[in-house]
Amino acid sequence: MLQLVERLARNTHEVWARKRLRDGWTYGPERNDQAKKHPDLVSYDALSETEKSYDREVVSEVIKVILALGYTIERKS
C-alpha cells in the first residue's frame, strides 16, 4: 500500500504542477500569487518532505474513503 500511496502522491503533485504551469505560473523561491510564482513548481523528488507528506496525506484520505465505500483496490498481476 505504501508504494501505491507514493505513486499516487507523485501523480497528484504532477497534475497540480501541470495545471499551474498551464495557468501561467512559474517557479519562484517564494510564493507570489500576483506574479504567479510558486516554490513547489519543481519535480516531486525535489519537494521537501513536508510537501511530500501533504500529498501523501491527501492520497491516503482518498484511499480510505474508497475502501470505506466498499470498493477494493487490487493490483493486476
Characterise the protein shown here.
The chain is mostly helical and 77 residues long. It has a single domain, classed as Globin-like. The protein has two helices and two strands. The protein is elongated, with a radius of gyration of 15 Å. The chain has a two-stranded parallel ribbon with strand order 1-2. The protein is 53% helix and 5% strand. The model has no long low-confidence stretch (mean pLDDT 96).
Task: Kindly report the spatial arrangement of strands forming the biggest sheet.
Answer: 1-2
Q: From the 3D structure, determine the CATH topology.
A: Globin-like
Largest sheet: 2 strands, parallel
The CATH class is Mainly Alpha
Explain the layout of strands and helices:
Blueprint: H1 2-22, E1 26-27, E2 37-38, H2 49-68
Parallel strand pairs: 1-2
Helix pairs in contact: 1-2
What's a concise summary of this model?
53% of the residues lie in helices and 5% in strands. With 77 residues, it is mainly alpha-helical. It has a two-stranded parallel ribbon.
Features:
two-stranded parallel ribbon, elongated, 77 residues, Globin-like, 2 strands, 53% helix, mainly alpha
